[in-house]
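Let us work through a complete example step by step.
Step 1: write down the sequence.
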Amino acid sequence: MLKVKTPKNPRVKRALEKRAPKLVETGKKTLILQGTKTSNTLNDVLTELYLLKKGSAIRYTRKNENIRPFESGGETSLEFFSLKTDCSIFIYGSTSKKRPDNLVIGRTYDHHIYDLVEVGVENFKPLNSFIYDKKLAPRVGSKPFICFVGEGFESVEELKHLKEVLVDLLRGEVIENLNLAGLDHAYVCTAVSSNRVFFTHCALRLKKSGTIVPRMELVEVGPSMDFVVRRHRLPNESLRKEAMKTAKDQSKKKVKNVGQDAIQGKIGKIYIPDQKLGDMALPNKAKGVKRERREAKMKNDPTERASKKQKEESV
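Step 2: predict the structure and record it as tokens.
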């Protein structure tokens, strides 16, 4: 069992919260490592998978003796490396007489093994065996198309599980909006039989089609290989429910005095209290106000004005 750390200060607490499982996932990192025995073909496969995932992958080249997937006690080291590197997907390569050129692709939840898929690699073709225009080479960090061809991905349990794992492995960070010009490569997975999948990597070439949407052509840039499904292990039901938990759709809090109109859009109401201008205190030396009062008084009482004129004449 892994030791559970308790935060001793706010900085450690923030770091642990950053690594904790989230309802809305960010981009997943991939850990690539190998066992005690690997062939040259398998080393090339691991290296080129690392190049495809460059920027979101970590590659370990040391041999690991204690990693034995699908065996009790043989997955502790994988969980330790997952916690150390904060990677939620791993690819483990090993070879033996019984299972040559073997790849184990797995996912973790809360840095514990979630599920596993074991495949054998056959008919591998590296990147340098493909000839194409280097201007079509995919850019690092660009979003890919992922295409699954064949009914086996919908009917065969092993291939359905492999499809889920490959989508998590290849899709990168989940985004909402995408620029079509930024799509420059595609992963094509074809179900050849009930346990064999042909995997290839292609670049996209955009050409004029006479419409707004351009015509796309696929140019194989490699690598390509066959995946032969050998073993797989699904997560238990309780762990699946915990990992598939999503945030509930919360109703928006009603904002006071704000409404929506189909034509005018957002409409707000502003309440201003009565200012009571008649009760406002005025300064004593308000000459203009005194003159206005005097003129108004003279207009309202003309007899008083006449009496004043008579007094002036008598004097």
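Step 3: interpret the result. The CA atoms of residues 102 and 120 lie 5 Å apart.
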